[in-house]
């Protein structure tokens, strides 16, 4: 440290431990510094004006809090700074937890908090006039979300088409005995297989060539002609078509597909009871005028017409477009799920798009005999609706393969993100925390044992 610097940090020692620093300054006291994203921000030579010149922090995604408090009356004339720098994304984060088939998924919001919020709403509604039910609960569409539904639909098609092209240049392996996949020239050596005859193979995977369905899980749901209609009974489970859940959500949000008709109301429904309603008379309404030109819908490219990128520049551009489509689909679906409810079974991956789940008794999860095959419906989160499929991150594609003894040093990322990164795309900030990019990987086991 340059003690001749005019910076106030130069007047005392600095102790740094795991991204947090405590600075003791002369006459000021302790200065706590917490950095998570860009440790280089603490380079003292970059801030010659001390804490007064913090313009370099404005370009980053960090938050700065500078309260000026001093309990000592003798130090009122001096400044006491408490600098807190917090990044939007953590430096390191734990991997997503693996839930066994015998465990039930946790509720997104605990039932105790839901009941407490319901009681508060009931108390506030006493003596107040009933408010009209907003869309989409009244049967109408949310007009502001219709363009977003088209964007999510096209983003999904773009993602599938680009992945088919990237699979021509990026190696993706899938285990033939379990649902694990790996992105890289060689399959990872970790003994994590839970499939058939895993004990005979001592947990090793049987790697084969992966497809798009292995990267993006085909989560399907029943297509509803009327999303406010009666629940699907068990007897009609085979007569109702099943389509991708993302497509069903987009249809309910306003996307018109001729092959999948759905009921569109121009008047809000008339409530008779809590779960009973009748449709309003729309005969008095004038004929609908000419519809505006809808956003064109993309179509999937057949496998026989898929062409690989021509060069590395084209591959990198395609990877960036794929990452953008992946982010647009997830962010758009998350916004749509706030108004158009999506249900998931707490015991199996079954998903239903609608206000209440279906009655089909096709749940085969743990102890389904006690529930007579019925699903335990609960509110779905984004990862239930669009599973990210985390895979091991390969630090160097051209380097040596992953080593079994150095497993704790490797990070993880969604399969789509890992494919795009190996194809030349820039690492997104939101996935850096689980990829462990700032962790130094030892070269051998002996060096790993020396790590404290």
UniProtKB/TrEMBL annotation:
InterPro entries per the UniProt record, alphabetical: APO_dom
UniProt protein name: APO protein 2, chloroplastic
Source taxon at top rank: Eukaryota
UniProt-listed Pfam families: APO_RNA-bind
Species name: Morella rubra (Chinese bayberry)
Domain APO: 174-259, 344-429
Gene Ontology MF terms: RNA binding
Signal peptide residue numbers: none
């Amino acid at each position: 440290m340059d003690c001749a610097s005019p910076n106030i940090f130069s007047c005392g020692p600095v102790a740094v431990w795991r991204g947090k620093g405590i600075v003791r300054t002369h006459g000021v006291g302790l200065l706590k510094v917490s950095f998570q994203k860009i440790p280089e921000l603490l380079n003292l030579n970059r801030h010659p004006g001390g804490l007064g010149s913090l313009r370099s922090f404005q370009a980053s995604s960090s938050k700065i809090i500078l309260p000026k408090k001093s309990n000592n009356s003798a130090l009122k004339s001096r400044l006491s700074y408490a600098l807190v720098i917090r990044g939007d994304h953590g430096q390191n984060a734990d991997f997503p937890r693996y839930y066994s088939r015998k465990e039930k998924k946790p509720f997104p919001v605990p039932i105790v908090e839901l009941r407490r919020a319901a009681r508060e709403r009931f108390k506030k509604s006493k003596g107040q006039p009933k408010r009209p039910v907003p869309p989409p609960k009244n049967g109408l569409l949310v007009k502001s979300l219709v363009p977003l539904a088209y964007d999510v639909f096209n983003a999904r098609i773009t993602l599938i088409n680009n992945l088919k092209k990237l699979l021509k240049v990026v190696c993706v392996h899938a285990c033939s005995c379990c649902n694990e996949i790996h992105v890289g020239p060689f399959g990872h050596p970790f003994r994590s297989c839970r499939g058939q005859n895993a004990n005979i193979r001592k947990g090793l995977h049987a790697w084969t060539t992966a497809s798009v369905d292995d990267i993006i899980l085909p989560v399907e749901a029943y297509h509803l002609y009327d999303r406010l209609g009666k629940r699907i009974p068990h007897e009609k489970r085979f007569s109702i078509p099943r389509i991708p859940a993302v497509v069903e959500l987009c249809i309910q949000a306003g996307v018109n597909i001729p092959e999948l008709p759905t009921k569109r109301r121009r008047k809000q429904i008339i409530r008779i009871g809590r779960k009973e309603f009748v449709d309003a008379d729309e005969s008095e309404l004038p004929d609908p005028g000419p519809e505006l030109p809808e956003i064109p819908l993309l179509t999937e490219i057949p496998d026989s017409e898929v062409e690989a990128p021509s060069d590395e520049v084209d591959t990198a551009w395609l990877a960036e477009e794929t990452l953008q489509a992946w982010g647009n689909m997830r962010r758009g679906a998350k916004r749509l799920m706030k108004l158009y409810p999506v249900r998931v079974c707490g015991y199996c991956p079954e998903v239903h798009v609608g206000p209440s789940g279906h009655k089909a008794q096709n749940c085969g999860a743990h102890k389904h005999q006690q529930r007579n095959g019925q699903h335990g419906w609960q509110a779905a989160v984004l990862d239930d609706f669009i599973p990210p499929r985390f895979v091991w991150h390969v630090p160097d594609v051209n380097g040596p393969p992953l080593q079994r003894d150095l497993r704790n040093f490797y990070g993880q990322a969604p399969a789509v993100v890992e494919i795009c990164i190996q194809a030349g795309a820039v690492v997104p900030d939101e996935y850096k925390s689980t990829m462990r990019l700032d962790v130094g990987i030892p070269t051998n086991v002996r060096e790993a044992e020396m790590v404290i």
